[in-house]
Design a protein that fits this description.
By secondary structure, the protein is mainly α. It contains 9 helices and no strands. It comes from Arthrobacter psychrochitiniphilus.
Length: 188
């Protein structure tokens, strides 16, 4: 998240509930995270289309979204639903991509750093595509988007413990697929 968008959203969130932040601020602050979700869910080829569908759907419902507390979680939920709709329509498996998501990622894990460096991005995205859907979603929402496990659980429709376990299993599988030893690279 860029600093100016994040600070602006914080100020907008502190304002009275009647006025949500300007939609452009949401796109600027959360567009990269939404794109990462789309890329992980549908692959690089279709991610831009699903990203656009996500923000069009968000814009359509934005005037009635007065009670949204966490805008990033709201947008990620829409992205997830649009991605699932797309996958149902096309019945395709995500394809590896050539470049990492836009902007730096946070975290200390070898998998996150591989995506950030862009050196093995195609291998990371291919490995993500090989994970079971629930594990893929859990690792993307928590490690790449940065949502807390409680919100990941809500998106996945399970408990916080189950979300932690799915993300942990996914990270272990990714480390094995990518040849990382998993030692000293951060927590799941």
């Amino acid at each position: 998240m860029n600093e100016s968008g994040g600070a602006g959203l914080a100020r907008a969130a502190a304002a009275p509930r009647a006025a949500p932040p300007p939609f452009e601020m949401l796109v600027s602050a959360h567009g990269t995270a939404v794109l990462r979700v789309c890329r992980a869910m549908v692959g690089v080829v279709d991610a831009d289309d699903v990203w656009q569908e996500t923000f069009l759907a968000a814009l359509r419902t934005y005037p009635t979204a007065q009670k949204v507390v966490n805008w990033q979680a709201w947008l990620v939920t829409i992205a997830r639903n649009k991605s699932l709709d797309h996958l149902r329509r096309t019945a395709r498996v995500p394809e590896p991509m050539d470049t990492a998501g836009d902007g730096p990622l946070e975290g200390g894990d070898v998998v996150v750093h591989a995506v950030e460096a862009g050196e093995t991005a195609a291998a990371v995205w291919a490995a993500l595509a090989r994970l079971p859907q629930r594990q893929r979603e859990a690792v993307v929402y928590h490690h790449l988007v940065g949502l807390p496990y409680a919100e990941v659980a809500a998106l996945l429709g399970n408990s916080e413990a189950a979300a932690r376990r799915a993300a942990s299993d996914a990270m272990a599988a990714l480390r094995a697929l990518l040849g990382g030893d998993g030692k000293g690279h951060g927590k799941d």
